[in-house]
Amino acid sequence: MTSISLAVAEGTNAAAGGFNPMNLILLAAFALLIFMMFRSRQKQKKAQEELQSKMQDGARIMTNFGLFGTVVSQRPEEKQVIIEIAPGTQVTIHSGAVARVLEETPVVSDDEDTN
């Protein structure tokens, strides 16, 4: 037999019910991909919920586009947050644009370090 007819014969045997380990490897890789996609989405959702719980009126926040401000009010039904970026200057942003809530850190002056 020629090499072409041997390849066809082997392909026919595998398709007829022979065990092909490549199918198992592809199935496992596909299952791993699906698992990782769902896991990543769950982590993102949990992080977003945690961010929303920290974002109360008066909290200092940073947006995705680098704007810092203080939360004045929130409109959860419209997914909007009103922040004050300067005294008397308020802007309305989408709540999804909030990157993080800034933690207040105590400022240590030089006088306290020398004691």
Automatic annotation (TrEMBL):
Its Gene Ontology cellular component terms are:
plasma membrane
Q: Name one GO biological process term.
A: protein transport
Bilayer-spanning residue ranges: 20-38
Tell me how this protein sits in the membrane: Single-pass membrane protein
Q: Which UniProt keywords apply?
A: Cell membrane, Membrane, Protein transport, Translocation, Transmembrane, Transmembrane helix, Transport
- Pfam families (alphabetical): YajC
Task: Indicate the principal place this protein occupies in or around the cell.
Answer: membrane
User: What SMART domains does the annotation carry?
Assistant: YajC
Tell where it localizes.
Answer: Cell membrane
Name the protein family: Belongs to the YajC family.
UniProt-listed NCBIfam families: yajC
The protein, known as = Preprotein translocase subunit YajC
